[in-house]
């Protein structure tokens, strides 16, 4: 036996019977426009049910979503959907990919907040709105799941206590669309997204008593990496060098005396502002460098670094270059 549904004065629509107490009807386009219509069911001949009110509403229109992407496995994030003709409803739902649905929170006629369902795969899905959780009642918009935020490595791992050390971070989940940040303990600084997928950020000046802190990365939407890497605030200083002069032909081993040298760090020295050479660690107070051939004679500046040349000591220490050493 066939059963039909009627919405207002529209033609009858064939219903699908689920069981003795349930059936499904697909609502046709409204003839009268938005507003209430009478809904009835019939056998198509002379039997009619009682009538209920069915509400036709203006189709919701989605213009944008913020953020446009979220990390896979993320379960506590939400997005704001912007558009028109959003209306408050206890059954307002967000549909992701047409199958996953979450409760929507109505903000106003142009904004709705959607919680994000967990997804184990990267890629784009459609995001739409519904008032009953079945069919979308808005246009779809693209939303992306991306790799989770993770730090794999960074360089350097040591920086000046004055701040300003440029750090390159390798990892996954960085965004070319929204803002990236680096978090030094509890201090957040902006990060630059590089064309090769890395991040670059500058360390802030050291604050507090801890020299060894955790570095994390995050997105402007509040998502933070679960992993972190250790970053050490440290500076080296030079008090004196022995010998204080050497031949222009090079080969002079200079003993640099000072403080703050680190055994497992990349200790180096810089001569005359251009020649950066590896330094041999002796102790926290001494490293050695061997001079290369130098052009001309006169004073050249000697500097030291403990982070591969990203930061150098601030003292003015000079080495005298001569033609030949007197014996």
Automatic annotation (TrEMBL):
InterPro entries: Fibrocystin, Ig-like_fold, Ig_E-set, IPT_dom
Alphabetically ordered keywords of this record: Signal
Limits of the IPT/TIG domain: 148-234, 235-322
SUPFAM superfamilies per the UniProt record, alphabetical: E set domains (SSF81296)
CDD domains found in the cross-reference section: IPT
Alphabetized SMART domains for the sequence: IPT (SM00429)
The protein's name in its UniProt record: IPT/TIG domain-containing protein
Species the sequence originates in: Leptocylindrus danicus
Lineage: Eukaryota, Sar, Stramenopiles, Ochrophyta, Bacillariophyta
């Amino acid at each position: 036996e066939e059963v039909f549904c009627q919405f207002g004065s529209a033609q009858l629509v064939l219903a699908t019977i689920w069981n003795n107490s349930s059936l499904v009807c697909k609502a046709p386009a409204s003839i009268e426009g938005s507003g209430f219509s009478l809904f009835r069911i019939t056998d198509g001949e002379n039997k009619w049910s009682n009538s209920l009110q069915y509400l036709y509403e203006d189709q919701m229109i989605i213009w944008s979503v913020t953020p446009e992407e979220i990390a896979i496995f993320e379960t506590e994030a939400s997005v704001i959907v912007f558009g028109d003709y959003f209306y408050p409803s206890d059954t307002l739902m967000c549909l992701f990919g047409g199958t996953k649905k979450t409760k929507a929170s109505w903000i106003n006629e142009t904004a709705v907040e959607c919680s994000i369902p967990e997804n184990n795969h990267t890629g784009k899905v459609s995001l739409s709105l519904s008032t009953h959780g079945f069919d979308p009642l808005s246009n779809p918009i693209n939303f992306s799941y991306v790799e989770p935020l993770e730090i794999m490595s960074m360089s350097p791992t040591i920086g000046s206590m004055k701040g300003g050390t440029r750090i390159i971070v390798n990892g996954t989940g960085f965004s070319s669309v929204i803002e990236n940040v680096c978090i030094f303990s509890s201090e957040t600084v902006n990060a630059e997204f590089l064309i090769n997928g890395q991040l670059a950020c500058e360390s802030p000046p050291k604050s507090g008593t801890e020299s060894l802190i955790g570095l994390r990365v995050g997105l402007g939407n509040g998502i933070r990496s679960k992993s972190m890497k250790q970053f050490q605030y440290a500076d080296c200083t030079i008090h004196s060098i022995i010998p204080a002069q050497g031949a222009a032909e090079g080969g002079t081993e200079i003993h640099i005396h000072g403080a703050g040298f680190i055994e497992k760090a990349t200790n180096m020295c810089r001569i005359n502002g251009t020649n950066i050479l590896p330094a041999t660690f002796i102790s926290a107070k001494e490293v050695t460098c061997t001079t290369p051939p130098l052009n001309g004679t006169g004073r050249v500046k000697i500097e030291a670094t403990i982070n591969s040349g990203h930061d150098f000591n601030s003292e003015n220490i000079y080495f005298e270059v001569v033609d030949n050493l007197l014996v």
